[in-house]
Design brief:
about 280 residues; alpha/beta; D-Maltodextrin-Binding Protein, domain 2; 2 domains; five-stranded mixed sheet; 11 helices; about 20% strand
Length: about 280
Amino acid sequence: MPNAPLVRRGMVGLVLLVVFSSTALAQGLIFTAPPRESPAAGAKLYGPLAEALTRLLGKKVTYQHPENWLRYQRNMRNDTYDIIFDGPHFASWRMTHLGHRAVAKLPGTLEFYLLRAKDNPDIKAPEDLIGKKICGISPPNLSTLSVLARFDNPVRQPIILGIRGGMGKVYKRFMSGSCDALVLRTTFYKKKLKPDDRAGLEIIYHTPPLPNQVITVSKRLSPAEQRRLAQALTTPGPVQKASLSIVKRFGGKARSFVKATQAEYEGHNALLEGVIFGW
């Protein structure tokens, strides 16, 4: 058979192509976000974006729920994740230590109020809270870390009473008399509390504004893939459409992600390092 060597070479090439494609598929990317919801809810929220990114990048992108905060932080420090959506303090740490790049963020800033009850004569300023309890979402949530950054001396700080379940639960716990002060996001204070509720509170500290939540990517994505991802998230198309449920939940009235820069996230890792055990 005169063409047998040619046929064999063609078969070998086909086998190599299949092997190469399977290897590329196996070496997929992991997309994650903090465990703020159940695994099922996380898959519903982030799964569509992972599928859209798979089609965009030509390699499998899988959403992985981190199970809990300890595992999330451990896996992040071990560089397990390739694409992550979370707060500026975590993103800054990854940029500094793992070489992550910021590709797209939610518009606006993250700011928080430290509040006291107006009828509490013992609390007039943040310094009056040293050694006293503040109700806030459990660290490493950005709200409580932003307030703790106000206190330079680590042995002269308030005691954080960590609350799970969101800002509404923080307010309810404060109103039950569990704490001397509380931390709320400024938008929650202005939009979710009733006028009568706000009338009973006084702002004693307003944290400096921080850039909003952001999507960062690891060095395992090439510069070209990073640019393609940033463009797809911030311009109309299938990827932006798949991200709208995330924007709606975390971005208020925002319509889409916007492009992010490295510079605006620099230095915010200081909120974590030396403050939270393990960082």
